[in-house]
Design goal:
The complex is a heterotrimer of chains A (about 240), B (about 100) and C (about 375). Chain A is an alpha/beta fold and about 240 residues long. In chain A, about 30% of the residues lie in helices and about 25% in strands. The chains are: A alpha/beta (about 240), B mainly alpha (about 100), C alpha+beta (about 375). The interface between B and C is large, with 56 and 88 residues.
């Protein structure tokens, strides 16, 4: 995608000539992402596919403001978040819902507690938190598991908890890394409906996955392929 | 049970109940002793030594009974550092005094 | 409490505490014992000192004792009163008849009381052969006679006990009839132990001493209340400062607390990174740590203060007399005034609470400087 098109798409997330270098174990720099230009628009879910190790997770972390590019910039609704200090990015991340590939659930805490942890900084009262969690848990079939510690759940259940955690704040930007890896077809359908609903409400949805079921899904308006650090939009 | 804005009942998670219990326990550990101490303070402050003060005054005692009888601190007025022969210029120095205090200058 | 329960951050902090109960209990115990120890050390000296001051404010302003080369000499009553009345500024001169005699259980202070009842404090006047004993002498179950050995040996019938509430003044006193006192102390009927007097203002005392010295035809030793108070305060300060050695284990406990907090925070860095990735910022994380610290620290401090309060101010406390003032027999039951504790308690809360909170804040600040992406990728 060229930069002129980017300037016509101020809403959502965008990458402008983003490059990311990392030092490998030997200490020599390795190029992870090479001149990424992309626009992820609100209401139009995007799928990023690619082989393992292509840098999908790294790109997602960049979009979430967890990483800063070596060069180029990441924009959120036209704001150059990659140039902000960590403090400002942390604040901005309240609008972001992110589900990690490794899930990163808090062991020893229950499903309910893991789900609701992003709500705490928002200053909601406890009853609001309980109601919000309850509603989302019903949609994801997690309500019977509320009081169960997450380390006692199956992989699929844990993944749904991670997705619920990402979605509970009704984020402006929803970033999901391999969200269907442990889900059966029925749950994939369930999740897709939820994401469709979120996108319809104006959420900017970006999903990184090499799950064939998502590749073929009608949900996604834009599809990308990330290969050897280059991002290519698919027709 | 709690109710959301649509009037639907939602169940209170068990973790909330345990947290409430612990919070109540911590609250009790804080406010109960404070309350009891305040009550005791209100009842006893500034009147604990009233009776002892009264007896000190009545009996003309010099020092309270913190120290045992017979010790220097209990009877400080008995502690005389030295008997100075020249405690008043109007008293003449006797030959006995001179012999003990040394030859006159 | 309802307000607290509505705050998710507080409930999350409680959940954190629930997940690490051993650490929470250890921290609680350390903070409580530290606070209690520091409070006892700080409050004890202050309470003893203020109580002693209050008691001694009722003692005579000046005591005049006749002395000779051998030390104390009996005071001729008539002459002494005559001479002292000539000194301007002297109020209410009166003779005292008292001394230290031996009993089977050790020395006691004998004080003669006048032949009339003591202003409603005793039921009837004391007769010769009778004694009123202090609450620290002879348990109630023992036979009601007391043998006193002074210049003479006297066996007196115990006519009553002085009230327990007056123990700080009368613990080991024996009140006797003046005739019995004279027999015990070897004084003639016209003699007394010393002379007590008061003044208009304590500041006048120093200037009065020279006049008093000059007023008597024999050498006298003058003891002022100010000097006595100073000596007593100095002794109390010396004895209670030894208890400041307790600060050594207290400091070790504090070091443990700091170390434990530091280790705990280090393990929490991954969690801090994750929370930051989920929308928490540094202020939220520090707030969480401070709430956790307060939830543990506040009850701990209160429990520590309560233990210190009970240890020092419970009814008829004797351990201070035994440990600090060297009583070998029944020690004085001290009734310290809780009103004297406030400053010491507040100081001990600050001495423990402030470093505790500062340590928590500092270690929390260190942990929130974490880069979320780096930490998450480590896992």
């Amino acid at each position: 995608m060229n930069t002129d098109a980017l300037e016509q798409e101020p809403l959502g997330l965008a990458c402008r000539d983003v490059m990311l270098e990392r030092a490998d174990r030997g200490g020599s720099p390795r190029l992870i992402l090479n001149k990424i230009n992309a626009a992820f628009r609100k209401g139009l879910p995007a799928l990023i596919a690619g082989p393992t190790g292509a840098g999908k997770t790294t790109l997602l972390h960049l979009l979430a403001g967890l990483l800063r590019p070596t060069s180029g910039e990441v924009l959120a609704d036209g704001q150059p978040i990659s140039r902000w200090t960590q403090r400002h990015r942390d604040r901005w991340r309240r609008q972001v819902g992110i589900a990690f590939q490794q899930l990163h659930l808090i062991s020893g805490r229950t499903v309910f507690e893991n789900m609701t942890v992003p709500l705490i900084p928002h200053g909601y009262r406890w009853q609001q938190v309980v109601c919000t969690a309850d509603r989302l848990a019903q949609q994801l079939d997690l309500q019977p598991l509320f009081d169960r510690p997450v380390h006692l759940l199956s992989g699929g259940q844990r993944q749904r908890v991670a997705i619920a955690r990402a979605m509970i704040v009704k984020p402006r930007y929803l970033l999901l890394d391999e969200p269907t890896a442990f889900q059966d077809d029925e749950n994939v359908r369930l999740l897709s409906c939820l994401w469709e609903q979120a996108a319809a409400e104006g959420c900017c949805l970006v999903v990184c996955s090499h799950d064939r079921r998502l590749r073929e899904h009608m949900l996604f308006a834009d599809r990308y392929e990330l290969r050897t650090g280059h991002l290519e939009m698919l027709a | 049970m709690t109710m959301d804005s649509d009037g639907n009942h939602t169940s209170v998670p068990g973790t909330l109940k345990k947290a409430r219990l612990l919070l109540a326990l911590l609250g009790m550990l804080t406010f109960l002793p404070l309350g009891l101490l305040s009550l005791d303070y209100g009842m006893r402050a500034n009147n604990q030594d009233r009776e002892s003060v009264r007896w000190m005054r009545q009996l003309d005692l010099s020092v309270p009974a913190f120290w045992p009888s017979g010790t220097g601190l209990r009877h400080p007025e008995t502690r005389i550092r030295a008997v100075d022969r020249r405690h008043g210029p109007e008293w003449p120095i006797t030959p006995a005094d001179t012999a003990e205090s040394g030859p006159p200058p | 409490m309802k307000v607290l329960l509505q705050r998710p951050l507080i409930l999350w902090a409680v959940g954190d505490i629930q997940r690490t109960p051993l650490q929470a209990v250890l921290l609680f115990a350390a903070a409580a014992s530290l606070t209690g120890l520091v409070a006892i050390v700080l409050v004890l000296g202050q309470a003893l000192s203020l109580t002693c001051d209050r008691l001694m404010s009722s003692s005579p302003a000046v005591v005049v004792r006749r002395i000779n080369v051998g030390g104390w000499a009996p005071l001729p009553v008539g002459q002494a009163l005559m001479h002292v009345k000539s000194v301007p500024g002297v109020l209410n001169p009166r003779v005292r008849l008292w001394g230290v005699v031996q009993t089977d259980t050790g020395p006691v202070t004998v004080v003669a009381v006048p032949s009339k009842a003591i202003d409603g404090m005793t039921e009837r006047p004391l007769r010769s052969g009778q004694a009123l004993i202090g609450p620290g002498l002879m348990p109630a179950s023992q036979p009601a006679t007391m043998t006193l050995r002074g210049e003479q040996r006297l066996s007196l019938k115990v006519a009553g006990r002085l009230p327990a509430a007056s123990a700080m003044a009368t613990h080991d006193l024996v009140l006797v009839h003046p005739d019995d006192a004279r027999n015990l102390l070897g004084l003639a009927p016209d003699q007394a132990s010393d002379l007590a007097l008061d003044v208009f203002h304590d500041q006048e005392v120093e200037t009065l001493c020279a006049d008093l010295n000059a007023a008597f035809p024999w050498p006298v030793h003058i003891s002022t209340r100010i000097a006595r108070q100073r000596r007593c305060q100095s002794d109390i300060a010396q004895r209670t400062s030894i208890s400041a050695l307790a600060f050594v284990p207290a400091l070790l406990a504090m070091a443990f607390l700091v170390g434990a907090l530091g280790i705990w925070e280090h393990n929490q860095r991954f969690l801090a990174a994750l929370l930051k990735a989920l929308g928490w910022d540094s202020a939220d994380l520090i707030r969480l740590r401070m709430v956790e610290a307060t939830l543990i620290g506040l009850p701990a401090v209160v429990c520590g203060l309560s233990c210190a309060y009970i240890t020092l101010f419970r009814w008829d406390m004797t351990w201070v007399s035994q440990r600090l003032f060297g009583w070998s027999t029944m020690a004085t039951r001290l009734r310290l005034n809780p009103g004297d504790a406030v400053t010491g308690m507040l100081l001990s809360v600050m001495m423990v609470g402030l470093p505790y909170l500062l340590t928590v804040a500092w270690t929390a600040w260190q942990s929130v400087k974490v880069d979320p992406a780096d930490r998450l990728q480590e896992r």
